[in-house]
Amino acid sequence: MVKKLYNGVEIPSIGFGTWQLTENVEAVIELALKAGYVHIDTAAIYGNEKEIGNAIRSNGVDRSSLFITSKVWNSDRGYEATLKAFEESLERLQTDYLDLYLIHWPANENRENAKQENADTWRALEELYAKGKVRAIGLSNFLKHHVKDILEIENVKPMVNQIEFHPGYLQGDTVDFCTEHNIVVEAWSPIGSGRLLEDETLRGLAAFYGVSVASLCIQFALQENLVVLPKSTNPVNIHNNLHFERFVIRSEDVDTIKSMPLNGFSGLNPDEITF
Ligand SMILES: NC(=O)c1ccc[n+]([C@@H]2O[C@H](COP(=O)([O-])OP(=O)(O)OC[C@H]3O[C@@H](n4cnc5c(N)ncnc54)[C@H](OP(=O)(O)O)[C@@H]3O)[C@@H](O)[C@H]2O)c1
Prior knowledge:
- By secondary structure, this protein is α/β, with parallel strands linked by helices.
- It has a single domain, classed as Alpha-Beta Barrel (TIM Barrel), CATH 3.20.20.
- The chain has helices at about 25-35, 50-60, 80-95, 115-130, 145-155, 170-180, 200-210, 215-225, 235-245, 250-260, and strands spanning about 1-5, 10, 15, 40, 65-70, 100-105, 135-140, 160-165, 185-190, 225-230.
- Strands 3-4-5-6-7-8-9-10 form an 8-stranded parallel beta sheet. A two-stranded antiparallel ribbon has the order 1-2.
- The longest helix has 17 residues, at about 115-130.
């Protein structure tokens, strides 16, 4: 299953998350590749790009069959620093292009010239895109007002915004705004980093459909038209998160999920972060 970005690039709807994957990275990526994941989500700050590159190489996977995303970290924002950070990510991943490159977090009001910093970083991504070094460019953790700022200065509109999205934390304003502007939204922490696994409402619904809470969360994101990025280091879960039997969540159950109180939230508000 793929989604088409507005520039025609196809993005696989389920990607393999790699945040906090710092042990046995090569073995876990090998499991993911063997399970059939072709979309891998990493970032410079995750500290695992090199091992991911090693795993791809040692498994002899054809680069063109993969969709690899990385992100520029906050300390590398700005035009020149972003261009340099991108080359370093390429080197660690042992590839000569990325499929998607994102600004990991917006500079916010905690920083002087936040808008300019975001604009300068975006210029660098536009340049990488124009040079054909990346097939698509986008944002991450940009709230509606941050996305609006980029839309005011862009030459190339972002193709993607990757944000926290899961039952109990839906960020409807940002999702709706991106959708209106044909920006594909990716769901990070679709299972709330595991915090949703014991949620009573979700457990009840999962039992009704005869699926796991994880499958319910992944299906919910897909059904809401998002790309979804589950992460696991467990071989069975890695497999099941990609291959669970597809089902449709009834509209009344979608309503139940959408009216859940805040749950599983990371606590990371892009307007407030200080890192
Ligand atoms: N852009 C950003 O700022 C940002 C921030 C956070 C995350 N992300 C991206 O989003 C990805 C996913 O988010 P996440 O890492 O927070 O985690 P997640 O996918 O929401 O949850 C992972 C947790 O759920 C468990 N799990 C996964 N599948 C399961 C299953 N089928 N049954 C039972 N438990 C299951 C995992 O444990 P096991 O290992 O035991 O399966 C792990 O504890 C990240 O890895 C990263 O790529 C991006």
